[in-house]
């Protein structure tokens, strides 16, 4: 571009004088963050540090009105940049000045500030918007679930575009203040601590605060009528659970499960170290779905997760994610084992503690249950591909790999790893390769071949490898541990 400014003539000369010499280096930010599974997710050119969301939601009409203020720092000289968003925008300001904007691609909001932005600059971006989230369809799909008394945003890997503009990739985490106004008698549940609640002229405003870095897909909003219980964990973390008043026969089982949250958090602290966030809890809205999600500080549980009665195992899974997935987040969606392998293994450890089957018995059961020609073994937990990202094998085979690692390193080193990984990577991002390096460093053993066998080969590990990693094999398949049905239910919950 620069050479065009050197064309002789008065017009070109005045142009040259009007634009700083460095102008040619100002380029658009990338429309994606470079994820290997979801190239359009997130954006390039800036890092968000804080989201301030001021929202108003009317359950009767599904109308969501909002003003989002994003604080960010540019990471390149920017002529323009993108946010990810699906609702209709009426105004955008960058550093207080009106900016041009356009909706492009599947979910891109392209913003051109009045003046280009230099690299390393702190900026504020204000987006005013309104729309009905249930009407936003991306590839024919909506992540917003309307309920009889409100609506819920809780989906993986994407849910933010249905309710607030963001840099929608787990590598760009930020703190949040989420303020939501709803008609009196209705509640708004979100992440972190309920800092305040006020009522005026028929509307109640709930102000939620998350003061530690939080990924966009782990940010949740639920509007409806809930029974709320509060308390504290033994270590003093505030607990807030919310159960819809509209769960019918599942209400008791839902409550009996999530009311174990403080106890489970305390047990997980004994395994993983101090809980990383300012609050904990869970919520069960009247969403006719069976999946659960580790939304930060306040996991989401679909109503159908409790069709067969209470399930504490799923609570263990989602709370284990607070360390493995939420505090230490993946770098790329291909690193999903960093989340799911460890959350599944936490359920195995809970089973061991409860006397319902040891992790070794669960590993033997899973290994023997799937013969070598079972497609189960074609899924590589270390890089399963976008279509198999939440396949049962990522959980089960992923947890078998951890039991094999435990046997290889011994309990002392293995449990040391489980505790030091979330401490040393707290609030950051990490890959499967980072974990392999970390385990090698902490154990002093070469582990590349071991992880290749258990996480990266599209085939069942050989009988010899199994003997070495899981111990002597019997001739009959290992029996089913008592905890298995509830653990298995969690997988179908996730695939829901
Ligand atoms: Zn999970």
UniProtKB/TrEMBL annotation:
Residues 465-496 are annotated as: Disordered. It comes from the Bacteria. Residues 308-454 form the Peptidase M1 membrane alanine aminopeptidase domain. Residues 465-477 have a biased composition (Low complexity). Keywords: Aminopeptidase, Hydrolase, Metal-binding, Metalloprotease, Protease, Signal, Zinc. Residues 1-23 form the signal peptide. It catalyses: Release of an N-terminal amino acid, Xaa-|-Yaa- from a peptide, amide or arylamide. Xaa is preferably Ala, but may be most amino acids including Pro (slow action). When a terminal hydrophobic residue is followed by a prolyl residue, the two may be released as an intact Xaa-Pro dipeptide. PANTHER family: AMINOPEPTIDASE N, PROTEASE M1 ZINC METALLOPROTEASE. Belongs to the peptidase M1 family. This is Aminopeptidase N. It comes from Streptomyces ramulosus. The lineage of its organism: Bacteria, Bacillati, Actinomycetota, Actinomycetes, Kitasatosporales.
